[in-house]
């Protein structure tokens, strides 16, 4: 009964944990590292083909983004998660694969002229589709047997549609231990989705600490504040351009705007248009509309029962094609443009910024975190001009931020979630927070609240039966890393991985019938004869 920490240790992204129990090998999350990395992550300590199952907390890329890579490396097991997470992964993993392949193609065209080694995408669309086909949905609150001695339950954690904490009961040698992975703990009073549900018992807790160093502050009146921004901008003839994350944040905005329109809080501009200009956001919005039962909160369900779609309204326009997107900027009427990406570093939002940043009439409204170095952060920090598509653009538009909009619990929310356990766990592992945040939060809950807590580094291994550390994690700073693309993996590297997978498959066929084993042997020998040259 061992737990190895691989990702989201002393940093926020790349969530991945490796659990060995009852002779089985399991991953909890397999996320992509996004933005600035602090420390080098350890690799999964066994070949992907030897992993038996994956449990997934939610669809965000820093938790799910490397699932297709597992299949690329030979994994053929199932991914267990909630139904809504499965639906969101269907669009997000396909979108990620498209980005990986497009970037690799662009880099290879550029690199070929200078004689550079080819870039290889970490996975392809085929890998993503295989991963999607192997996702098994489960309902909230339902305990299921994963393997003999291992039971699992997904509990609504209120972060994103379908997001969950994962409860795992492991029974070995007559001893049962309960392990809880918090996933990303949600903020309270978010529109559409439920507040986090609390868990009462655990022997071990692996919990996130994203906002472990601060609170969100007094909750603003989002509808009132957004109404005022719309009114002021429309009165001077401008557009409200909102860089927004396609999944979660965009749907929350539509919920607020529907209420603003319903109550006629913006005067004199009739049925103003709201453009959602992101194919991914459009697909995600459809998923939100379809995944209602068991995922929406009471207030939203009351609207649904009245026949009201909580995120649809007159004047809502969704655009898919590039031609439709370009046409938005030839519409002279004041309007709202919601477009991805949320930090302005890619996507269609950059075109809308080019057409609106220089206009004093317009407003650029930020509704999400802007990482250091991102274009969104540069604009928010007061840049006089920015470069877009090779052109210097003056920043004359009004720059605003809708404060407090976060899908993550703040410090008080994290402490509320932790204090819900009726008996203090044997140990709390603090993960998914910036380096100093992990350290400070761990120190606080240890010294002030009396929990046995630790913030492990990548590679740390714990024996959960006896509650002892077997291997200390490694604090290896990352100097630089190519995002999303690996220059190291060659076609020969992939061939070597296929060979390792073949050995795993051979081992698993021990005890098969003589007829089947003879046939398998013949196929391998034929393949060897073909390539032994």
List the helices and strands and how they pair.
Elements: E1 2-7, E2 16-21, E3 24-30, E4 53-55, H1 61-64, H2 67-72, E5 78-82, H3 83-114, E6 120-121, H4 125-133, E7 135-138, E8 144-147, E9 150-156, E10 164-172, E11 175-181, E12 204-208, H5 222-235, E13 240-243, H6 249-262, E14 273-277, H7 279-290, H8 298-305, E15 316-319, H9 322-328, E16 335-339, H10 349-356, E17 363-366, H11 375-380, E18 385-388, E19 391-394, E20 398-401, H12 411-419, E21 427-431, H13 435-447, E22 453-454, E23 461-463, E24 468-471, E25 485-486, H14 491-508, H15 514-531
Parallel strand pairs: 3-4, 4-5, 5-7, 11-12, 12-21, 13-16, 13-17, 14-15, 14-16, 17-20, 21-22
Antiparallel strand pairs: 1-2, 1-23, 2-3, 6-25, 8-9, 9-10, 10-11, 18-19, 23-24
Describe the structure.
- The protein is of the alpha/beta class and 533 residues long.
- It has three domains: 2-215 and 407-483, Metallo-beta-lactamase, Chain A, CATH 3.60.15.10; 222-401, Rossmann fold, CATH 3.40.50; 493-531, no CATH class.
- It has helices at residues 61-64, 67-72, 83-114, 125-133, 222-235, 249-262, 279-290, 298-305, 322-328, 349-356, 375-380, 411-419, 435-447, 491-508, 514-531; strands spanning 2-7, 16-21, 24-30, 53-55, 78-82, 120-121, 135-138, 144-147, 150-156, 164-172, 175-181, 204-208, 240-243, 273-277, 316-319, 335-339, 363-366, 385-388, 391-394, 398-401, 427-431, 453-454, 461-463, 468-471, 485-486.
- The chain has an eight-stranded mixed beta sheet with strand order 7-5-4-3-2-1-23-24. The protein has a seven-stranded mixed beta sheet with strand order 8-9-10-11-12-21-22, with helices on one face.
- Helix 3 runs antiparallel to helix 4, helix 3 runs antiparallel to helix 7 and helix 5 crosses helix 6.
- The longest helix is centred in the N-terminal third of the chain and has 32 residues, at 83-114.
- The chain is globular and about 80 Å long.
- The relative contact order is 0.14.
């Amino acid at each position: 009964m061992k737990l190895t920490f691989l990702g989201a240790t002393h940093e926020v992204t790349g969530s991945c944990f490796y659990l060995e129990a009852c002779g089985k090998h399991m991953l909890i999350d397999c996320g992509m590292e996004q933005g600035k990395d602090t420390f080098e992550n350890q690799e999964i300590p066994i070949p992907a083909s030897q992993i038996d199952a994956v449990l997934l907390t939610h669809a965000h890329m820093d938790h799910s983004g490397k699932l297709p890579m597992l299949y690329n490396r030979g994994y053929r097991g199932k991914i267990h998660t909630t139904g809504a997470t499965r639906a969101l992964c269907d669009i997000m993993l396909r979108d990620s694969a498209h980005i990986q392949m497009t970037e690799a193609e662009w880099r290879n065209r550029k690199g070929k002229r200078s004689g550079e080694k080819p870039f290889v995408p970490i996975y392809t669309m085929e890998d993503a589709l295989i991963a999607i086909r192997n996702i098994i949905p489960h309902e909230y609150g339902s305990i299921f047997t994963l393997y003999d001695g291992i039971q699992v339950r997904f509990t609504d954690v209120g972060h994103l549609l379908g997001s969950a904490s994962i409860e795992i009961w492991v029974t070995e040698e007559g001893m049962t231990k309960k392990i809880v992975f918090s996933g990303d703990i949600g903020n309270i009073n978010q529109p559409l989705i439920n507040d986090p549900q609390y868990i009462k018992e655990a022997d071990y807790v692996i919990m996130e600490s994203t906002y472990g160093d601060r609170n969100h502050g007094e909750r603003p009146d989002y509808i009132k504040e957004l109404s005022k921004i719309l009114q002021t901008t429309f009165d001077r003839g401008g557009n409200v351009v909102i860089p927004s994350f396609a999944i979660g944040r965009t749907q929350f905005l539509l919920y607020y705007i529907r209420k603003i329109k319903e109550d006629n809080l913006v005067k004199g501009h009739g049925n103003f248009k709201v453009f959602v200009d992101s194919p991914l956001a459009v697909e995600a919005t459809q998923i939100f509309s379809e995944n209602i039962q068991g995922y929406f909160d009471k207030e939203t369900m009351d609207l649904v029962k009245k026949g009201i779609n909580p995120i649809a309204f007159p004047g809502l326009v969704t655009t898919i094609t590039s031609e439709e997107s370009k046409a938005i900027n030839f519409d002279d009427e004041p309007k709202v443009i919601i477009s991805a990406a949320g930090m302005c570093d890619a996507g269609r939002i950059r075109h809308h910024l080019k057409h609106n940043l220089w206009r004093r009439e317009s407003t650029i409204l930020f509704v999400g975190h802007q990482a250091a170095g991102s274009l969104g952060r540069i604009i928010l920090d007061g840049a006089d001009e920015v470069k877009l598509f090779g052109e210097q653009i003056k920043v004359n538009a009004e720059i605003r931020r809708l404060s407090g909009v976060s899908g993550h619990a703040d410090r008080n929310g994290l402490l509320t979630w932790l204090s819900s356990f009726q008996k203090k766990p044997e140990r709390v592992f603090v993960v998914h927070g910036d380096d100093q945040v992990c350290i400070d939060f761990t120190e606080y809950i240890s010294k002030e609240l009396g929990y046995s807590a630790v913030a492990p580094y990548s590679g740390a291994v714990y024996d959960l039966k006896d509650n002892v550390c077997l291997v200390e994690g490694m604090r290896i700073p990352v100097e630089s890393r190519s995002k999303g693309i690996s220059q190291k993996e060659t076609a020969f590297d992939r061939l070597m991985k296929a060979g390792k997978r073949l050995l795993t498959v051979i081992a698993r066929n021990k005890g098969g019938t003589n007829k089947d084993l003879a046939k398998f042997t013949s196929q391998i020998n034929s393949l060897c004869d073909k390539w032994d040259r």
